[in-house]
Amino acid sequence: MHKKTTYFLIVLFLVAFLGYTAFDRMTFKVPQNPTEGASCDITPGDFTNTGQIKYSANETWWISFTRKEEYLSAFSAVLAITFMGYALTKLRQIGTAATTGGVVGGSILVVGWTWHYKYRSDTWSGASHWLRYAERCR
Questions:
Q1: Which of 1, 110, 120, 124 has a CB 3.0–4.6 Å from the CB of 80, allowing a cystine?
Q2: For the chain, what is the domain count?
């Protein structure tokens, strides 16, 4: 692999990871009570006796981000983006059809793994489960 390609992929990986994390932080809504906090993995111990959260908005987001292991989802999404970048850098060498197949196939594998890891449960109910998750803390 050429040096330029390697640097491009490293920069792409870092930018995508920072972008994913920044987007997650921007869309995070601080829970106002322990009931809302439960969906963000914010425990009743993270609230004061009066029901206020003990931490700043950034600290609350970081606690939720780490307890829910969002960094694993970020890593998976970033791997998919980086793989797409790699496949696109090989466009001339392997052709359009192979590049397209590599981008789509690699992305499906990584996103499928993320989906399985993050959303598996005994009470899995398809799309409604995804929508309920998407509404939490957002």
A1: 110
A2: 1
